[in-house]
Amino acid sequence: MYQYTRINHQINAPTVRLIDETAKQIGVMTIAEAKQHSADSGLDLVEIAPKAIPPVVKLISYSKYKYQEAKKLKAEKKGNKGGELKEIQMTPFIGDKDYEDRVKKAQTFLSTGNKVKLSIKFQGRQISHQEFGYDLLNRYKTDLVEFASTEGDAKLLGKKLFVIFSPIKKKI
């Protein structure tokens, strides 16, 4: 959604509240006085709060203001992470350190609101000993019991055993 911002001569309020680049308040004055401040400093008048009484106008370079707004919007989008499906892969005979790393990674994914798909890939003849995969899956489930719950049962498709963990909403 694009919001139109009035600048300089487009501002039509009789009195405005003027603030400078550092967000320090200069005061309430007529639009003519504000335009004089703008001319003296070489900066633009940018209306940042048109619905306020009187409207708030900032002394700032318009290009700098647009850059700051774009940066703010990008930061908001960046903060809205979560709800994605992240996949963690392992084999039934994974080493302890690698297993711990995968658990920590899953905990970070779950704490940011993402779902985690655990895939246990059987290689070669390992598929004949599926119980090792199920044992690993149960161990993983107990390690993540505080962070997640499983969505349904584990499924075996081809040589992959997988289950999806969804984050638990903490009650405050």
General description of the model:
This protein is α/β, with parallel strands linked by helices and 172 residues long. The protein has two domains: 8-78, Translation initiation factor 3 (IF-3), N-terminal domain (Ubiquitin-like (UB roll), Roll), CATH 3.10.20.80; 85-167, Translation Initiation Factor IF3 (2-Layer Sandwich), CATH 3.30.110. The chain is built from four helices and eight strands; from the N terminus they run E-E-H-E-E-H-E-H-E-H-E-E. The chain has helices at 31-41, 62-79, 96-111, 130-143, and strands at residues 15-19, 25-30, 44-49, 56-60, 85-90, 115-121, 148-157, 160-167. The protein is rod-shaped, with a radius of gyration of 28 Å.
What would you report as the Rg, rounded to the nearest angstrom? 28 Å
H/E element order: EEHEEHEHEHEE
Average pLDDT: 87
Report the CATH topology name of the largest domain.
Answer: Translation Initiation Factor IF3
* Model regions low in confidence, pLDDT < 50 over at least 5 residues: none
- The CATH H-level superfamily of the largest domain is Translation initiation factor 3 (IF-3), C-terminal domain
Percentage of residues assigned to helices: 25-40%
Overall body shape: rod-shaped
The strand count comes to 8
CATH architectural name of the largest domain? 2-Layer Sandwich
Q: What structural class do you assign from the helix and strand content?
A: alpha/beta
| SS element count, helices | 4
CATH class of the largest domain: Alpha Beta
Largest sheet: 4 strands, mixed
Number of domains: 2
Task: Please give the alpha-carbon distance between the first and last residues.
Answer: 33 Å
Order the strands across the largest sheet as they lie in space. 2-1-4-3
Question: Strand fraction band?
Answer: 25-35%
